[in-house]
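Why do we bother with holo predictions? Because pocket geometry can differ from the apo form. Keep that in mind while you read this record for L-tryptophanamide.
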Amino acid sequence: MSDKKKVIFSGMQPSGHVTLGNYLGALKNWTDLQEDYNCLFCVVDMHSITVRQDPPTLRRLSREFLMQYIAAGINPEENIMYYQSHVPEHAELAWILNCFTYMGELNRMTQFKDKSQRHAENINAGLFTYPALMAADILLYQTDLVPVGDDQKQHLELARDIAIRFNNAYSPTFKVPEGYFGKAGARVMSLQEPNKKMSKSDEDENAFVSILDSPDVIARKFKRAVTDSDNEIRFSEDKPGISNLLNIYSAITGKSIEESEKDFDGKGYGDFKMAVAEVVIDELRPLQDRYKELEKDKAYIDGIIKENAQTASYLANKTLSKVQRKVGFPPKIR
Ligand code: ATP
Ligand code: LTN
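The structure, written out:
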């Protein structure tokens, strides 16, 4: 890692398949930013268990996530990619930050409210203190920039508040991070309920496109996407389904929304949906080809898992040991 470059940290929960929302809101921006920053891209498996997971599935998905990061174009030689659970410093700092986070702050988090509704049978303390662990992820590495989708703004704001609070209570310890939100694609909506964000843990498989879905499946999901009945391809708040498809098209092609609307002047919804499906399929094809190659190379992936966790742990310790000293933990005797 070069000392001169600024630091990026971001992560995804391996709690389903990487969706087009995750890709356009986060992963694609990671690949665009990687050259100019020292980057850490984490598979946040500890965050995933705030909701019940099937253990073998979690293990499999975690590995698939790392492979999808690489397939999407993230260079594992230049960036640090690892599992959160392999770097215990995350949990250690999270405990300390829990003691600098107020119940009132956690109570306001919309993700907590959403997930408590969706998992009413299991509203556990981890789900509630989730943002303190996320703050630990970010603050451990003196992160400058956090590229995430719009839905994470509130969590990021809290991480900043916790950093400022800690710095004021002791002395400057944490870098106060900034968010990075792409212009298009920061909020991809469900294809079935376009007023809801596309989520990888949605029960309805037609609501999301997974980046490893085959071309046929992608085409079918777009064909079934919920729209409206007036047959006008226009971006507007009262047309959430069509606006979402325009947003996806614009995020992939790099065209503005106005240019995208023009591309479909006089066309019907059927043609429009197929055109959006086509740009998505073309965008994902090289990623899917690389993924198939990576699947064959177990030793290579194992090497990345091992080495990157060691590097992350080394870096994390620099911050963690300062924090432990400042809060008054006795020094270790070696
Ligand atoms: P879950 O359904 O398990 O809560 P999720 O699909 O919301 O998961 P996360 O792992 O929580 O995904 O998020 C990974 C990254 O993808 C984050 O940066 C998040 O902001 C971004 N992201 C998630 N959903 C979307 C979306 N619909 N549009 C744009 N970005 C998104
Ligand atoms: N909370 C995020 C995932 C996440 C994350 C992070 C993102 C956990 N730790 C640190 C960026 C930085 C989510 O639910 N999308």
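The beta strands are 6-12, 37-43, 80-83, 145-147, 178-180.
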